[in-house]
Design goal:
Length: 221
């Protein structure tokens, strides 16, 4: 009986110690890895916050927060690339990929700021189970390169950087962008996305620069 009590006490102590160190007994799956950090950025995990650094793993459930003038680059498990701009709050809600099983899914959430998404293998699978959510609209893809952000105003802007396509939808409506250089604006969750229009070069370039770090060349797939 004493042996059982001691074993239980030891297990309880170990569990408490792990929690104190911010370690989860069932750690979340790895979604990707940090490839670039410019300026201040942090990751919030298990109610703790720590500085983001190159080489750090990004787990499902992580929230990444960037500061003024910051940039962050992530390489995801399916080969996709995410680029975060300054003053951005972004969460990896779900991200999994199995090349052997030919299955995967991605659920991303952008609360504020701007980001560029260059999709990987998940967007090429049957069903293309890849979505990026905001408070005013959700974006789904067909294998693509696009920019999304609350950057030019309080409204959400979305622009397509290649010709494969993206849809933008909320409770009020849905539009598809199929031509590179076109974009839409969403002014609220109860307001339908605008019809796609060709962005002026100045606006397009500003969107690209908002997620480009110093010394980086324009990314090409």
């Amino acid at each position: 009986m004493n042996l059982i009590k001691n074993l239980i006490a030891g297990l309880t102590f170990a569990a408490v110690s792990l929690l104190a160190l911010g370690v989860s007994a069932a750690e979340s799956p790895v979604a990707g890895i940090v490839t670039h950090v410019q300026g201040g950025a942090s990751v919030q995990r298990n109610a703790l916050s720590e500085a983001l650094s190159v080489g750090k793993q990004v787990l499902v459930g992580d929230r990444i927060v960037t500061k003024k003038n910051a940039r962050v680059g992530l390489k995801m498990s399916d080969g996709g690339v995410l680029k975060l701009g300054a003053d951005t709050v972004f969460t990896v809600e779900d991200y999994s990929y199995s090349e052997q099983a030919s299955e995967g899914k991605a659920r991303l959430f952008l609360l504020k700021g701007a980001m560029r998404v260059i999709t990987g293998a998940i967007a090429k699978l049957k069903g293309r189970d890849f979505t990026l959510r905001t408070n005013v609209a959700t974006m789904g893809v067909r294998g693509t390169d696009f920019w999304v952000g609350f950057y030019f105003s309080d409204a959400l802007d979305v622009a397509l950087f290649d010709n494969t396509g993206i849809y933008v939808e909320n409770a009020a409506g849905r539009v598809e962008i199929i031509r590179a250089g076109d974009g839409v604006t969403v002014k609220g969750a109860a307001i339908a996305p605008s019809a796609p229009i060709r962005w002026e070069r100045k606006k397009y370039d500003a969107a690209v620069q908002s997620v480009t770090w110093e010394g980086e060349r324009e990314f090409r797939k």
